[in-house]
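In the current project phase, the collection of sequences with tokenised folds has grown. A representative record is quoted in full directly below:
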Amino acid sequence: MGAGTEPDGSSRSDEEWERFLRESVAGTADAPKEPSARARDVTQRLRGEPGHGPEGWRSHTPARPERRTGRYVVGLLALLVLLVVALAPGRIVDLFAGADSPPAAHPTRVPPVEAAQRPTVDEPFRGSPAASWASGAEGITVPEAGAVGWMSAAEVGRALARSRDFLVASGLDRGVLRGERPEKAIALINPHQKDVQDLLQTAFRAPSEKNDPLLLFSRFQPSRTHLVGDVVKTRGRLTYREGERGALQVTADVTFVYPVTRADAGGGDDIVRTIVRRELVLSWDDPAKVITEPGTFSIVSYKYDMTNGGCGAPTGYFTPPFGTDRRADGAGKEVDPYDRSAPVGRGGSAGDECGRATRS
């Protein structure tokens, strides 16, 4: 007689039942929910065979994987992150902001300058944002040249270099800063540009709001003001595009930081930083369309903003305030001379309201 009977009347052999029951004990998906009497007998016999323990028909439970180590590692990492955030939150912000993120907005209130951060003769830019700026012409960025209007790429490159030469000759030349006439800079200006030539002829002889050499040149009166050290800090750039009648139009936007002290201070520590931001628009004209001389440009416009350079009637020189001459706190409109996001405001009147620098 067979080992068991199927619903259709067919029977299974003992070997088939034994195989079936072994698979059921191992967890085969199609194992019956309740075994028959014959199945229980065979199961009892199988328990006595080697390799089968006393576990019941449905008593096997798969072992759960050990996860304690993973939880310990996650917890340790979380504690380390919290510790880093507590000790250096600024670095975490920088990490997620990325290297190319724009700098933070300018502060609305400037913290007081500690005594250790005040400028000295040896470190005239101490405590100033300009301390990290480039020096002299190195701080003026010149773009890669390309052909524009009547000029080839090589000619544009030479014009850009001469435009920067003008900025150096007018705002960095040591003799000009000490009050000398800026001959090298003047030589680069189109001699046929009548309005600018009229300004140059009058400005050094009889300075006025309309004809003031400070509109184009940085100058200090040597009998009153002494430059500290040999370094002027700069930050700015040149840009260019095609102008009128196919001319190459170059725009310069550069900030100059001059550390100065009294001429009679004998190397004292009463140091003031005069900060001047200039915007010049220069036109390198096509000589076939505009009367000009080779290697010269016409000046389309000029503007400048200045702090710690003096107020009142034009004298042809910056006149930094020292000691008791400094304006009282609260006087004048507050300005941040290092904020280069705002447009340059002063367009030709040295008698405009003076601003009070929030930092220097």
About this structure: Helices lie at 14-25, 37-47, 68-87, 89-97, 153-171, 174-177, 183-186, 194-203.
